[in-house]
């Protein structure tokens, strides 16, 4: 059964949270694919992952390239899995509809966007019957607390 984590972003945007989660993913020797809701978000996310911290490096690439299968982290705007990842992140408007063959899905949604919150609630209801779901919410200090 695929584990699905819902991250309710309230204190920090996806560009700040995602690199930390991707670092943990690589520490486990997992590959990840990060899906965004619109291809126009790819370049901004790519830049954020290269520059989020001076003393860190997240090896990644945009999924369409000929070396896409080699990237530990692939950025995509579609359902593809160019690097055969075990973990799929949904950010910047992308919403999970099924778990596929992934070990884990991580869905990050903007808590300040009422439409994003509505889509998250709908996804929760649709995925709950067949998967193990957890819901994480940020406290004002940035710490994550498991709420469900």
CATH superfamily: DNA polymerase III subunit chi
Distance between the termini: 18 Å
Q: Share of helix among residues?
A: 25-40%
Form type: globular
Poorly predicted ranges: none
Give the CATH architecture: 3-Layer(aba) Sandwich
Percent of residues in beta strands: 25-35%
Report on this model:
The chain contains 3 helices and 8 strands. The chain has 148 residues and is of the alpha/beta class. It has a single domain (3-146), classed as Rossmann fold (3-Layer(aba) Sandwich), CATH 3.40.50. The protein has an 8-stranded mixed sheet with strand order 3-4-2-5-6-1-7-8, with helices on both faces. The chain starts with a strand and ends with a strand. 32% of the residues are buried.
Write the layout of secondary structure elements.
Layout: E1 3-9, H1 14-27, E2 32-36, H2 42-51, E3 60-62, E4 73-76, E5 87-91, E6 104-110, H3 114-127, E7 132-138, E8 144-146
Parallel strand pairs: 1-6, 1-7, 2-4, 2-5, 3-4, 5-6
Antiparallel strand pairs: 7-8
């Amino acid at each position: 059964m695929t584990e699905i984590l819902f991250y309710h972003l309230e204190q920090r945007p996806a560009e700040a949270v995602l690199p930390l989660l991707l670092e943990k993913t690589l520490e486990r020797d997992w590959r990840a694919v990060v899906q965004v809701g619109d291809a126009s978000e790819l370049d901004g996310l790519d830049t954020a992952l290269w520059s989020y911290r001076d003393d860190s490096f997240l090896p990644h690439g945009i999924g369409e390239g000929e070396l896409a299968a080699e990237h530990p982290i692939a950025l995509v705007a579609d359902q593809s899995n160019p690097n055969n990842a075990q973990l799929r992140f949904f950010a910047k408007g992308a919403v999970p509809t099924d778990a596929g063959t992934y070990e884990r899905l991580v869905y990050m949604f903007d808590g300040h966007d009422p439409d994003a919150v509505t889509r998250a609630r709908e996804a929760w209801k649709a995925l709950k019957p067949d998967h193990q779901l957890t819901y994480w919410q940020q406290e004002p200090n940035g710490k994550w607390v498991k709420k469900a």
